[in-house]
Design brief:
The chain starts with a helix and ends with a helix. The chain has helices at residues 2-33, 48-70, 73-82, 105-109, 114-134, 160-184, 219-223, and strands at residues 89-102, 138-143, 146-151, 192-207, 212-217. It is built from 7 helices and 5 strands. The protein is α+β, with helices and mostly antiparallel strands and 224 residues long. Helix 5 (114-134) runs antiparallel to helix 6 (160-184).
């Protein structure tokens, strides 16, 4: 009895040592499930198994964050929330489609330093993408100097036509502000043209089982 009584404080200490990092790991996995993938420090523990689990959760957060940079975030969020996997196939639905184009992009950049072209074009894409996503749009892909974006896919948006129009107006303002910075820095401005259309399209995953692309296909997309 004396021995058992003497070990109780040690047992409580050991339980506390294990419980605290485990609670933090539960919070981490819950945050990932909510698609809250903001960068956080790795969780450490003096217990080897918990330390390994902390490393795995940290790696999982990094993978999800990287995955979300290549796949439209609404799709990643949907995969995490539902626990489903990506499959080939699609469905027909009404969407609003946007294509942008930079006038004379090749002539402006073909003789420039390639690294500078990438830096300035990435700044341009970031400015437009921020406005598109701020107005409930999904950036489908970048095609050279063009941006393809969708509304009402993959998430439902009953106001997709209004949101798309507002996004284009916001992109115009953002592009104008960015061009002022480009001129000050001695870089040619990117004068953007916008093609916007609404109609039915087939939306879903196209490609192969090893490499898929979420996109929209059909006459509505071609007209945009």
């Amino acid at each position: 009895l004396a021995f058992v009584g003497a070990t109780i404080p040690f047992a409580f200490w050991l339980g506390s040592l294990m419980a605290q990092p485990l609670r933090k790991l539960v919070e981490e996995t819950d945050a990932i499930q909510r698609f809250d993938i903001a960068e956080r420090p790795r969780i450490h523990s003096s217990i080897a198994e918990i330390e390994e689990l902390g490393r795995s959760v940290f790696t999982m957060r990094s993978v999800v964050s990287s995955f979300a940079s290549f796949i439209p975030r609404p799709i990643v969020r949907q995969l995490i929330e539902t626990g489903s996997s990506l499959r080939l196939g699609g469905s027909r639905r009404e969407v609003t489609v946007l294509f942008t184009d930079v006038a004379d992009f090749t002539a402006k950049t073909e003789r420039a330093d390639p690294s500078q072209v990438m830096i300035y074009t990435s700044r341009y894409f970031a400015a437009l993408s921020d406005e598109i996503m701020r107005h409930q749009g999904t950036v489908d892909k970048y095609i050279g100097d063009a941006v393809m974006a969708l509304w009402n896919a993959p998430a439902d948006d009953p106001d997709h036509t209004i949101n798309a129009c507002r996004a284009v107006l916001a992109c115009l303002a953002a592009n104008e502000a960015l061009n002022k910075e480009f001129r000050r820095e001695g870089w040619p401005p990117y004068d953007t043209r916008y093609g916007l259309h609404v109609g039915d399209a087939v939306v879903g995953n196209v490609g192969s089982s090893d490499r898929m692309n979420y996109t929209a296909l059909g006459a509505t997309v071609n007209l945009a």
